[in-house]
Amino acid sequence: MQRIQPAMRLAKSLSSPLSRLSQTRQLSSYPTSISPSPAEIRNGQLTPQNLETAIRSLHHDGLVVVENAVSHEALDRLNEKMVHDARTLQNKKDDSPYNYNPGNIQ
């Protein structure tokens, strides 16, 4: 019991500032979306202004949408591979990990 007490005090001291943060921070209803210019897409690099917007959004909301950052061809290849992998896992029936087993909650 003596070991548990310091851990409980530490947990209380950490939870108090965290709960205050969650109470005072208003999350956005919609994610920030950035539309890179053709030059940014060609160079593979955001302008300092767009980069700052992205970083601020990540810090505040945990995500940012960068439009047209990935080509449709790359997304099509990724989708094809993911569908193939999903079907392979699904066909394993009871030996399948994660999502396809009864009782798996996510």
TrEMBL record:
Residue numbers spanned by region Disordered: 1-44, 86-106
Compositional bias ranges of the Basic and acidic residues kind: 86-96
Biased amino acid composition, Low complexity: 13-29
Protein name stated in the entry: Uncharacterized protein
